[in-house]
Amino acid sequence: MSNTKRRLARFTGAAVLVGWAVLSLFPLYWMFLTAFSPQADTTTFPPHWLPQHLTFENFRWLFAHVAMGRWFVNSLLVASAVTCGSLLLNTMAGYAFAKLRFPGREQVFWLLLGLMMVPEIVTLIPLYIVANDLWLSDTYFILIAPFLASVWGIFLIKQFLQTLPSALLDAARVDGASEWTIFWKIVLPLARPVLGALAIFTFVGQWNSLLWWLFSRARPRCATSRSALRASGSNMRPSTVRSWQAHCWQPFRSLWSSSRSSVSSCAASPSVR
């Protein structure tokens, strides 16, 4: 291939990627544009693609008329608690399935995989009955406890830990390390990349969770940002809704930045052979 054709192919590929990036980022740009624009500018046709009159009025109205701070703290509390519990429990179960030997291990694992074929909506009623019998209704625990472990998370952790050399763990056992020591000081540090990925998926999934809150009907004081926005969104102006969405987007940016730096540092460190 000549240099001209190679440059043309590279330019075409770069143009396609740039165009796709612009299309992907446009909804985010429009959200921030309407959040900082007056109500009149958001309903005009044809729309203004560039900011005309920037204002903080939508955010002032939001803080003055709704319990935004309480909703935001509830979302942060529930998503963080589920993420931390999911990382711990899923990693422990994945480590057991990947590196420990016990009777019925394969049968139990395949049974868990079979549960992934059960639709989530089928489990709502039994899950609510169990949570209600445990007196978890009208508390934060009914939003947290059912999601502290997941089959998908166990499967993801197991598949990653299977790539770790068993000789490394056997050497630690020969040196007198207990299973807890091996898990905390060897397995967890080496599993940071997959833990970062699982943390992102779990946190974003719980932040956007709506169906379980509507079904469990937790108290309004336990409402998260997504559920409260749905309940009161009809009484808000569209530009105010965009302001709330822009405000709720901030944890995702922080989580993505911290997780990306963590995974990058792990990838830069020498791998265990």
Element layout with pairings:
Blueprint lengths: L2 H33 L3 H4 L14 H9 L2 H32 L5 H11 L8 H10 L7 H4 L6 H11 L4 H9 L4 H12 L1 H16 L3 H6 L8 H8 L5 H11 L1 H19 L5
Structural class, by secondary structure, is mainly alpha
Number of strands: 0
Spans of at least 5 consecutive residues with low confidence:
238-253, 262-273
N-end to C-end Cα span: 39 Å
Beta fraction:
under 5%
Radius of gyration: 24 Å
Assembly of the depicted chains:
single chain
**Tally of contiguous helical segments:** 15
Largest sheet: none
Mean pLDDT across every amino acid position: 76
Order of helices and strands: HHHHHHHHHHHHHHH
Helix content: over 70%
Q: Label the overall shape.
A: extended
Polypeptide structure, described:
The chain is mainly alpha-helical and 273 residues long. The protein contains 15 helices and no strands. Helix 4 (68-99) crosses helix 8. The radius of gyration is 24 Å and the shape is extended.
Write a compact overview of the structure shown.
With 273 residues, this protein is mostly helical. The chain has 15 helices and no strands.
Essential attributes:
273 residues, mainly alpha, 71% helix, 0% strand, disordered C terminus
